[in-house]
Automatic annotation (TrEMBL):
Subunit structure: Homodimer.
EC number: 1.5.1.5, 3.5.4.9
Reaction equation(s) it catalyzes: (6R)-5,10-methenyltetrahydrofolate + H2O = (6R)-10-formyltetrahydrofolate + H(+); (6R)-5,10-methylene-5,6,7,8-tetrahydrofolate + NADP(+) = (6R)-5,10-methenyltetrahydrofolate + NADPH
Amino acids binding NADP(+): G169, R170, G171, I237
Domain (Tetrahydrofolate dehydrogenase/cyclohydrolase catalytic): residue spans on this chain: 6-120
Pfam families attached to this UniProt entry: THF_DHG_CYH, THF_DHG_CYH_C
Main function: Catalyzes the oxidation of 5,10-methylenetetrahydrofolate to 5,10-methenyltetrahydrofolate and then the hydrolysis of 5,10-methenyltetrahydrofolate to 10-formyltetrahydrofolate.
Top-level taxon of the source organism: Bacteria
Gene from which this protein is expressed: folD
Keywords tagged on the record: Amino-acid biosynthesis, Histidine biosynthesis, Hydrolase, Methionine biosynthesis, Multifunctional enzyme, NADP, One-carbon metabolism, Oxidoreductase, Purine biosynthesis
Database matches in NCBIfam families: PRK14193.1 (NF010789)
Protein name: Bifunctional protein FolD
UniProt similarity note: Belongs to the tetrahydrofolate dehydrogenase/cyclohydrolase family.
Amino acid sequence: MTAVKLDGVATATAVKNELRVRVDALKARGITPGLGTLLVGDDPGSRSYVAGKHRDCAEIGIESFRVDLPATASADEVRDAIVALNENPAVTGYIIQLPLPAGLDENAMLELMDPAKDADGLHPTNLGRLVLGVGSTLDSPLPCTPAGIVEMLERYAVPISGKHVVVVGRGLTVGRPIGLLLTRKGLDATVTLTHSRTTQLETHVRQADIVVAAVGSAGLIRPEWIKPGAAVLDVGITRVVDPETGKGRLVGDVDPGVAEIAGYLSPMPGGVGPMTRAMLLKNVVDAAERL
Ligand SMILES: Nc1nc(=O)c2c([nH]1)NC[C@@H]1CN(c3ccc(C(=O)N[C@@H](CCC(=O)O)C(=O)O)cc3)C=[N+]21
């Protein structure tokens, strides 16, 4: 590949090494950060993400607490679990693993969280602060994937200011919030937000200095759509079964041929995913430092 690889594993390791120092300093003050996870149901993908988050915590000396409910849990049972996490002093931050099983109202559940313990930055108060935060540094968590993307671009010195970012996908965790972050004063990108009903997606992507592909549509972004030298971040995750080996594997939104055209490529796996997890840890450490 000709593109410089935006290596999420190496960058996340660097972030974690910095966080470990801050965790030690907190512990010296008698504060142990603790991450809670609330998982409802038994989706294999969600299970493996949650397991990864607990491993990450152990790596940097953060405690972690798992709350797993069956797919059949009622709204009341989920609510009770959220209230218990809000009230548990050992849990300094937590996440509700999304998606919740059909029939549970995700927005209503996110709204029940204590915003000071929201490690994902997805509570309405924190998303509101993301909107309000233009030009200032409000002390609130940022959504993990957008924060991880910006952190990686900055560490690789990819220019953002004045550049045209085309975001593909409008989901809650990536597409919707990332434009709010990238257009803040200090980052100063110009952002186009596209989605499944966008006409002439290709025409938009061709304009982009930076492409953020967060749809979940395997190979959607074609090499001929990419401006030579652009930075491309592959965020989409599609699980496919290899017909030859019968094994499951993960495929991104970006066609592998893009590596020959782009200047920078964040691959999937090994790109934004590990950075998302590192930013979750950062949100937990940040919140513990505010205690
Ligand atoms: N409340 C909530 N917060 C989230 O942050 C959240 C969520 N719900 N629901 C699901 C999505 C997905 N997500 C991933 C994080 C890391 C990897 C990751 O580390 N992936 C590895 C590969 C992992 C593997 O091989 O299975 C990589 O890209 O290299 C993937 C996906 C967080 N999400």
